[in-house]
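Record type: monomer structure entry
Structure origin: computed from sequence
Chain ID: A
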Amino acid sequence: MNYLEIVGFFGAFLTGIVIGLFGGGGSILAVPIFVYFFKLNPVLATSYSMFVVGSSAAVGTIINIKKKLIAYKTAVIFTLPALVSVYMTRRFLIPNIPDILFSFKDFDITKKMVLMLLFSLVIIISSIPMMKQPITEPNTTTSEKNYGLLIVIGLAVGVLTGLIGAGGGFIIVPALVLFARITIKQAVATSLIIIAFNSLVGFCSDLSLLKIEWDFLILFTALSILGILIGTYISSFVRESTLKTNFARFMIIMAAIIIFKELTA
């Protein structure tokens, strides 16, 4: 085991802490760790990320079931179209994207580059809400629910998960609050069960296409889950607004590093 892999496994632990603190965001660390520390190609990295994020979200879901915070009807309406689109994306779209999309003089635009640049864009977009005021909860007694729009967003989240291995919590939570008219606590809890199913189905769709190193993946996931437990404990003592702002800045710096590495490789 070289020093990069040692740092990578420490990163697995940090990934769990991030999920424990924020209830999501694990893929923001997991994908770059798999790509740059363990030297995996982005397709395999996003697949592994889905397993890690899905398993972590499943742990959070078990906790939330006991707290009775999950809006099950809303979860089903959102999850079903997301499962279809994530499966189609991983099974048919990703395998048919050529390794080199096109060339300009001596510069090749590759699948790896496009996936990592798309991942960076998502990081930047997801960091913006963290710097703003929290979402205002709607009046759940008088506002109408818009399940049709939730289905459309579910399809989009499934494609996003399939492409870059992200759970999509930064999209799911606001969508559930605004269109399903549930509280933020319910939205966070419900998003975890959606992310769990979405990510794990996406991972399972890869099993016949990719060679999975189970020993490595299970060790990485176990370290992440340990981080979740510690992150959840730490969250009780840290001011959430300050934490989110600083994490958003860190995300933007990470996105900039990824963009630089891909464009100068």
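Annotation 1: The mean pLDDT is 86.
Annotation 2: The beta strands are 100-104, 107-110.
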